[in-house]
Amino acid sequence: MEILFLIIITVAIIVAFTRISDLKKRINILESNASSKPLQRPARVSVPQSVKAGAQTIRQTTESKPGVMRSFFIWLKTDWLMKLGAFFLILALVWFVTFSFMENWIGPVGRVTLGILAGAALLFWGHTLISKKPVPGQVIVVTGATMVLLTVFAARDIYDFFTPASALGIMAITVALTAVIAVVHRTLALAVLALIGGAVAPLLTAAPSPDFTALLAYIFILDLGVLAVVALRSWRSLVVLGLIITGGFSSAFFEMNESTVWTFMALFFALFFAVSTSAIWRSKKALIVDLITTALAVALGIFWVAEFIPDHLQSVVLAGAALVAIVLSSLLFRRGAPSIVVYTHGAAAMALLGAATAFELEGEALTIAFFVEALALLAVARFGMKDTHAVWGASFLQIIPLLLAFESFDRWNDLGDEFAVVLAGMLSLTAGALILRNFFPADQKSRLPQIFSTLAVIFSVVLIWRFLEVLIDSHSYAHGAALVVYSLAGVALFFRGTLQNLKTERIAGIILLTVVTLRLLFVEVWSMSLGGKIITFLVVGALFVSTAFFKKSNQPNNA
């Protein structure tokens, strides 16, 4: 009875969704037929076709369509007596078969034979019925496939009639027939159920000692079937489902030898990467499911490498995979592939390269490596691809080393690893600002170069401050020297911005000088020694006064 209720609930859900889809199609057909009829207007009024098309578009967008629940209740109340009677007949048939089994009217061989033949008959009947009545036909196909799977499972588990291999073969044939029916009749719901049935089939064989190599070979064949269905009908959501199923069955890797695991890892990763690429190529656009597929494939590949590849080979394997993705992206770009394919492969390569670096390095060395890699990718996007979207994507990669580098802003005891991190960040951001300079068109008004410049200035300020603290024993004099350097930089930026009419640099100089002023008046004036105050305020004051003379020298002489 539990299995019966499960089947009934599953069938009800499928019927609901497929019926809703059928209702939506009928509504769209009625709307298109209604809109195609000419509007009755006075003979003397001539309406242009463009006006008619605009009115039709507005009418189609403003009309409210029934929601999912409303469509379900509409289907439920239509011929509800017929549906209720069909449900009663199914219950009576199930109880009759159950009673015949209990009274031993039908022996084990007859029960298994009857179940398989009845399921096959339902499959064929549903196939012939779908073209005329889609919803009942789909329900009958699902019922027949489920009946065959459960019958084979019972025959194997209770009566021990089949071997695990033969039981799996019968189930696989049933799943394949269901998938063929789904492709022929363009029914995504049947394809999804066929894939789920194919994934459940190995669990129903009740094998005493599972052969994990054969199991993963079966899953790979199932994935090939997914590839074939996607190639025929472009149902990309099946790829995500297949990838999730493959990830679940990959737990068998823990019970297999290394060489076999590595072989299946390469096969599965290459297959799903190829499926995602071909789907994007054929449609000339990337959907959310394509991006999800690529992200899941990369994440699963990194997990496999971390778990099943020796430590000394992990970074090599991931770097090799990243190199393959980059080379493939370049080849596809030259063959005229859509830019979204290049972006997808580029993002995958970045993720693989970052994982390889993380497996090989740690701490400050990892942060420095991330700065170098992010800068290199930015240069490739800027000078190699010359694409705005690629440049933006590569620029966002700087966020990762930036977050890691903030830990190195604390007080240093020597010029060690923290100094190297901040120095690498300053050089990388400065180089990034130079790379991005004059790249964006004037009409885009991108602030990305200014952002890089601002971050580079922040790192420079921290670097000078901490460097002088290490170099000079007295923090009072070290801070004074740093403020003098900041004042020189601020005055230089202010002069250059004013002279060359560069608003950004002039504002940056003003901000830097303002920071120096606030630091002097509210912090250093209370903590500096008397000698440090005299020297610092004297030099900084002279620099500030020089700006006034510079401004006067640039003003027109009224005398």
- The topology string of helices and strands comes to HHHHHHHHHHHHHHHHHHHHHH
Number of β-strand runs:
0
Helical content band: over 70%
Could you give the distance between the termini? 107 Å
- Determine the strand fraction and express it as a percent band: under 5%
Structural class: mainly alpha
Largest sheet: none
Report on the structure:
The chain has 559 residues and is mainly alpha-helical. Among the domains are: 1-21 and 69-209, no CATH class; 472-553, no CATH class. Helices cover 80% and strands 0% of the residues. It contains 22 helices and no strands. It has helices at 2-36, 49-62, 68-77, 80-102, 108-130, 134-157, 164-184, 188-200, 212-233, 237-249, 258-283, 288-308, 311-334, 339-360, 363-385, 388-396, 399-405, 417-436, 448-471, 475-499, 503-527, 530-553. Helix 9 (212-233) packs parallel to helix 11 and helix 20 (475-499) packs parallel to helix 22 (530-553). The chain is elongated, with a radius of gyration of 35 Å. The chain starts with a helix and ends in a 6-residue tail after the last helix. 31% of the residues are buried. Residues 1-18, 39-45, 50-65 and 552-559 have low confidence and may be disordered.
